[in-house]
Amino acid sequence: MSNMNGWGLTARLISKHFGALGDKVSEAIANFDPETATEADRDRLAATLRDTAQKLAAARAAFDQEQGDVTRLRALIANDEKASSTLAERLAAGKISEATVSLFCDELEANKARLPLEVQEEADAREYMDELQKIVDALSAQLAAFDAAAKKALQNLATARAQKDLQQLRVERQEQLANLSSVHSHSTALNALTRRAENVSNEAAGLRIVADIAQKPLDQAAEIEAIRASVAQADTAGESTLQRLQRLSGQNKQVDAA
Fold it and tell me: What is the pLDDT along the chain (258 residues), one digit of tens a residue?
């Protein structure tokens, strides 16, 4: 059994010991916001949960002890009450001394007087354990909420980064297109090349004009020679073999001269 100065002070112990812990945990829960909590917030919350869980384990052990004390004391009182009639018979028969019976009665009365205190200590231990259990449950729920919110936040962050990268690529592509357009319209090298191509084209056109002028007399001479050839072919077109032979041998000229 616990001593008289133990759990008999449970109410004051709860007020002092649990009060400080309760304020700490209550503040942590009240100030906790899963949407804006940092990793440090989670670490502090997890540390508080571990600390409270350890206190809960100790409170459960203390309650089990107090509950066992009450159970054993009640059983002892019940057994002594049953033995009272037997002791009364033995005392009446002179089989047991009054001093022994008086000692027995003193112990029974003391146990009965102590029973309410033990019951109160058990109740205090249960209350302390139940309050710690509520805090552990609340902290566990808050930690789960943090983890869920953190997961969602990480997903949102990844999506936002992907969108940022996409928009950055679009901006870079637009800049590249603008630069290409600027090169086409403002590049000194391209402008010089364009002017060079125009000059070469003009030179080629000038050379063509000159070539056409020089070619014209040649074409006219060729045309005249073609006319002459066609006339000559026309003059000899109907001659016989004898006439052709005479023409080639110059006899036609001799006949014409005579």
Answer: 444 444 444 445 445 554 555 555 555 555 555 555 567 777 888 888 899 899 999 999 999 999 999 999 999 999 999 998 888 988 888 888 999 999 999 999 999 999 999 999 999 999 999 999 998 998 898 888 888 877 887 788 788 888 888 888 888 888 888 777 665 555 566 667 777 778 878 887 888 887 788 788 887 888 888 877 776 665 666 667 777 677 777 755 554 444
Residues with Cβ within 8 Å of residue 49, at least 6 apart in sequence = 136, 139, 140, 143
Could you give the count of Cα atoms lying within 13 Å of 182 in the half-sphere of its Cβ?
6
For the residues of the chain, what is the DSSP string, one character each?
Answer: ---TTSGGGHHHHIIIIIHHHHHHHHHHHHT--TTT--HHHHHHHHHHHHHHHHHHHHHHHHHHHHHHHHHHHHHHHHHHHHHHHHHHHHHHTTSS-HHHHHHHHHHHHHHHHHHHHHHHHHHHHHHHHHHHHHHHHHHHHHHHHHHHHHHHHHHHHHHHHHHHHHHHHHHHHHHHHHHHHHHHHH-HHHHHHHHHHHHHHHHHHHHHHHHHHHHHHHHHHHHHHHHHHHHHHHHTTT--HHHHHHHHHTHHHHHHH-
The pair of three-digit structure tokens given for residue 145, joined into one six-digit string: 């909420």
For residue 5, which phi and psi values (nearest 5 degrees)?
A: -95, 10
